[in-house]
C-alpha cells in the first residue's frame, strides 16, 4: 500500500482487462495498478501505453508475485489457467481476485479455499452481472414483495458463434465454454436471486451438423430450495436462430417480471398485460437508451458491475468488511456449475487436474 492506496497486480492483459478491470480500478481512488503481466510479447506494454500506466510491465509471472508492495493479484487469464495460477499466487502469500470462470470443479474450489486458509489469504471472484442495473432492479422487486412468491423463471440467451471469440475457448473440453463462459452469468444470477439449488432436473446438450465438434445449445432445468423452477436456454451460434439477445422472465404469485438486457428494461405485470403498459415501457427503455448513448452514460454504465466489485473489494482488503464474492460464499454457484457440466459428456472427457 502506497499513499493510502491498495496496489493491484494484474495477471493477463487481454480483452476483459482492457474493457473492464483497468477502467474500474482507475476510477476507484482507493486503488492503483502496481504491476501488470502477460506472457504474450508486447501485450502488457500495449496495455500500459493505452491507459498511460506508469507501472512495470512483465512477461515473468514470478517477477510480479515477488513484488511485496502488491496488496492483491488480479487473475484475468483464460479460465483453464486459473487453478494453477491461483495456487501459485497463494503460495507466494498473495490475496487474489479471480475473473470468471473462477474454477472448473469442486475439487479445485476446495483446494484453493484450503490453501487460502492455510496461508491466511483472501480469494474473491468476479460475478459482475449481479450488479447490473436491471438485475438490481429485479432484486428490489423480489425483496419488497411486489412479485410475491417467485414460482418459475425462464432465461433465454442467444449469442454469437464461439469462433468469433478468443481461440482458447474453441477447445470446449478445457474451457467448457457454453456453461463456464457464456452461461455462467445467468446461472450465478439465479443463485443470487433465488438461493441454493435443490437439484438439476435435466440437461440437454446438442450441436448441429454444420459444427459437429462443438456443443452449441444447452437447455437446463433446475429446481431451487426456495421452490423456484428455472429453465435456461443458451445458444452460442448465430446460425441456429434469428435473434441475438438475453432476457429473463420471472413468474410470481403477485406479479410477473420481464427483464431485458438490451435495451435495458424491467416490466412488471399483474393480470393481463395492457397494450398501453407495453408501449410505455418500450418507449421509456428506448428513450433512456438514446439519452444514455448521447451523453456517453451507457458505455460508462456497462462497467458498473466491475466498479461495484472493486469498491467492495477495497473495503474487504482494508477493513475486513464483508465481501459477498468471497470464494467460500460463492460455493452454491460453483456447485451448480459443476453439477451441470457433469451432465454434459463432452465436458467430462478431459480431467483437468
Query: What's the alpha carbon Rg, rounded to whole Å?
Result: 21 Å
Annotated CATH homologous superfamily of the largest domain = Dihydrodipicolinate Reductase, domain 2
Largest sheet composition: 7 strands, mixed
| Amount of beta strand | 15-25%
Total E-strand runs: 13
C-alpha end-to-end distance: 35 Å
Question: What structural category arises from helix and sheet content?
Answer: alpha/beta
At the fold tier of CATH, the topology name of the largest domain is Dihydrodipicolinate Reductase, domain 2
Mean pLDDT across the residues is 89
Strand order of the largest sheet: 8-9-10-7-11-12-13
Number of helices: 13
Percent helix among the residues? Answer: 25-40%
Order of secondary-structure elements: EHEHEHEHEHEHEHHHEEEEEEHHHH
Low-confidence stretches: none
* CATH architectural arrangement of the largest domain: 2-Layer Sandwich
Q: What would the principal axes of the Cα set say about the shape?
A: globular
- Name the CATH class of the largest domain: Alpha Beta
Count of all domains? 2
